[in-house]
Amino acid sequence: MTTAIVAERDLSLATMDRLAAALREALARGDAIQLDLTHVAAPDLALLQLVEAARRQASRDGVDVALAAPAGAGLARALERAAFIKGFDATDHDFWFHGDPPR
């Protein structure tokens, strides 16, 4: 089973908590996760850390996690500012950008 999780446009402490809870629940069920971050207006380090933590947990548990769409410009800028891209391997690049170079 695949669980689709859509992040809210305006992330705040409350909405980030709901996103984290949804990810935890899907991981606990062992569901594959399709995460939609396309509507997030201002992605920040907290979002990146949450997604990376979910990816690591999913990897340990043998659960698939994928982005519904490649990272857009705002998300790519957040990844660059946080120095994530610099350390990306092929798997990270495929996850965040679906194999396409960041724009």
Structure write-up:
There is one protein chain. α1 (13-29) runs parallel beside α2. β1, α1 and β2 form a beta-alpha-beta unit. This protein starts with a strand and ends in a 6-residue tail after the last helix. The protein has helices at residues 13-29, 45-61, 73-81, 90-97; strands at 2-6, 32-36, 65-67. It is α/β, with parallel strands linked by helices and 103 residues long. The mean pLDDT is 94. A 3-stranded parallel sheet has the order 1-2-3, with helices on one face.
Mean pLDDT: 94
Helix content: 40-55%
Report the β-strand fraction as a percent range: 5-15%
Using the alpha-carbon principal axes, give the shape.
globular
Number of strands: 3
Please list the strands of the largest sheet in the order they lie side by side.
Answer: 1-2-3
Low-confidence blocks of residues: none
Question: Which helices and strands, and how do they pair?
Answer:
Layout: E1 2-6, H1 13-29, E2 32-36, H2 45-61, E3 65-67, H3 73-81, H4 90-97
Parallel strand pairs: 1-2, 2-3
Essential attributes:
103 residues
Summarize the entry for a quick read.
This protein is 50% helix and 13% strand. The protein has helices spanning 13-29, 45-61, 73-81, 90-97; strands spanning 2-6, 32-36, 65-67.
